[in-house]
Amino acid sequence: MSTSQKTREYWVEKARGWAEEFLTHPDYDGSPQLDEFNEVMDDLLEASEKLEEDREWRPMTTAPLDGTPILLVENGEIYMARWQQIYYVFPHEDDPFGWCISESYQDEQGGFSMVNHPSGWKPLPKLPKEGDE
């Protein structure tokens, strides 16, 4: 568990304690809201864990090999690429698949630019909704 995750969990527990103290105080009749507050805190903690995962580069052994476009890092450079068949470009290769930079296709002779030795990957971020800027 990362330091930032421990910090989030610490503050979530602090907030739970404050809410419980406030919502169960004899002068306040809000105790039914405590369960709702705890559900919201659980959702926030889960969302923060997901954000933490998305920030980290993942090992290449876990990268999708189904053609899904992803971000790759190689020698400090970031590329959008996908795992796909390349045998028609390099028929002499033993493995006819590789990390192809999708937008780099030139022509039948030129083929794709490749990311040969990526050290990590991330999923692509979600696109903004229509009308969002």
Overview of this protein structure:
By secondary structure, the chain is of the alpha+beta class. The protein has two domains: 53 residues; 64 residues. It has a five-stranded antiparallel beta sheet, with no helix packed on it. Helix 1 runs antiparallel to helix 2. The longest helix is centred in the first third of the chain and has 24 residues. The chain is elongated and about 75 Å long. The model has no long low-confidence stretch (mean pLDDT 77).
Instruction: Calculate Rg over CA atoms.
Output: 23 Å
What are the low-pLDDT stretches, counting only 5+ consecutive residues below 50?
A: none
The secondary-structure class comes to: alpha+beta
Percentage of residues in strands: 15-25%
Distance between the termini: 34 Å
Total domains, how many?
2
Number of strands: 5
Count of discrete alpha- or pi-helical segments spanning 4 or more residues: 2
Q: Quick one: biggest sheet?
A: 5 strands, antiparallel
Please list the strands of the largest sheet in the order they lie side by side. Answer: 4-3-2-1-5
SSE order: HHEEEEE
Categorize the overall geometry. Answer: elongated
Mean of residue pLDDT values:
77
Helix content: 25-40%
Brief description of this entry?
By secondary structure, the protein is an alpha+beta fold. 34% of the residues lie in helices and 19% in strands. It contains two helices and five strands.
